[in-house]
Amino acid sequence: MSIQFTQKDIDRFLSYVEKLPNGCHFWSGARSRGKGNKKWYGSFRVGKKVVRAHRFACEALANPPKPCPPEHDRDHTCLFSLCVNPDHLEVVHKLENQRRKIERRKIPEIILHAPGTVLTIIQRSLRQ
User: Fold this and answer.
1) Where are the alpha helices (DSSP H) in 21-128?
2) Model pTM?
3) Domain boundaries defined on the chain
């Protein structure tokens, strides 16, 4: 089911986005965990409904829009759950998303985000 949004919603959404040097669009708005997630994800209110910020980005900002059919998820190819750059989000089957998640656990964080980078600092602050 598609999100119904206005230009005002898009403008408000963009006010919470900070573009980082690595191409990620850092979500600085509300965050939540849900359904057993260990990572934080952005949350955004559209009308009376709260949606994941990366979902809104895929449906409102991507050109063409990236709808997510049943049994599919939006995978952060940049590995940063607070990124809302539609170019860093790929619609994949739930099983593929889980496979990737397991593979990524094998990669040490120090390789993913070198010490001192913006992403490392952000991740440290979220853990506290």
Assistant:
1) 53-56, 94-104, 109-112, 118-127
2) 0.79
3) 7-127
- Single-letter code of the amino acid located at 48: K
d(CA 75, CA 113): 18
Print pLDDT tens along the chain (128 aa).
678 899 999 999 999 999 988 889 999 999 998 777 778 899 999 999 999 999 999 999 999 989 899 999 999 998 888 999 999 999 999 999 999 988 887 766 544 454 445 555 455 445 44
Rounded Cα gap, residues 89 and 66, in angstroms:
9
Contacts of 60 (CB under 8 A, 6+ apart): 3, 5, 9, 10, 13
**How is residue 61 written in tokens?**
């900002």
CA distances (Å), 66 to each of 48, 102, 106, in order? 22, 24, 29
CA pair distance 27, 30, nearest whole angstrom: 8
* Domain 7-127 in this protein, CATH class: alpha beta
